[in-house]
Amino acid sequence: EIVLTQSPGTLSLSPGERATLSCRASQSVSSSYLAWYQVKPGQAPRLLIYGASNRATGIPDRFSGSGSGTDFTLTISRLEPEDFAVYYCQQFGSLPLTFGQGTKLEIK
Amino acid sequence: QVQLVQSGAEVKKPGASVKVSCKASGYTFIGYFIHWVRQAPGQGPEWMGWINPNTGDTNYAQKFQGRISMTRDTSITTVYMELSRLTSDDTAVYHCARIFCSSPSCYFDSWGQGTLVSVSS
Predict the structure, then answer these.
(1) Cβ contacts (< 8 Å) between B63 and chain A: which residues?
(2) Do B47 and A97 touch (CB under 8 A)?
(3) Which pairing describes strands A103-107 and A10-13: parallel, antiparallel, or unpaired?
């Protein structure tokens, strides 16, 4: 099973700042099969990034993804108030599909 | 538009079973696998398995083998996930999700709203 470790667990930033979220895999994951989701309380997850670096439909360009192999990054260039949420990475490269434990992005 | 609408919250006693439904609309039902993912309080999401709505084939995470069943009814474009021998550890929000694969990537592009299953004596 591929374990995804996200860091930091909590990130405290202010609107307008840049957020950098990390996702590290216990073994190599094809970039094609790495996705990022945003989750807000009481809502279904929202796909942000697929294939490590492709923005999903309707996702603002302040969200970007990068990385390969075992290290992946989600960057939010300038935080908007609606961006404060929990973010998860997920791998589709092998079964069982796995998710990271999440990074909570909170307002400082 | 693609929609996955799940059944309502459930409260169950330990040892009981729960069956959650997920009604799909807005796309060709048999064209996309449906996965189930759950999220317990304070934990990350956990993948449970998938069903192929076209054939009924399934693949379950080893952790749930023997007490999970995924089925579908194509006449009403609905998939079901049944989990038996519930314990308090099964208290979680359960989501269905459609997987979309466009070479070379795959991802969950649409999710159900979630069904809270609470297990308590």
Answers:
(1) 96
(2) yes
(3) parallel
Q: Name every chain A residue with its beta carbon within 8 A of the beta carbon of B6.
A: none
Q: What is the pLDDT along chain B (121 residues), one digit of tens a residue?
A: 999 999 999 999 999 999 999 999 999 999 999 999 999 998 999 999 999 999 999 999 999 999 999 999 999 999 999 999 999 999 999 999 999 988 788 899 999 999 999 999 9
Tell me how crowded residue B84 is: count the other CB atoms within 10 A of its CB: 15
Task: Say how far apart CA B15 and CA B27 lie, in whole Å.
Answer: 37
Per-residue HEC secondary structure of chain A comes to: CCCEEEECCEEEECCCCCEEEEEEEEEEECHHHEEEEEECCCCCCEEEEECCCEECCCCCCCEEEEEEEEEEEEEECCCCHHHCCEEEEEECCCCCCEECCCEEEEEC
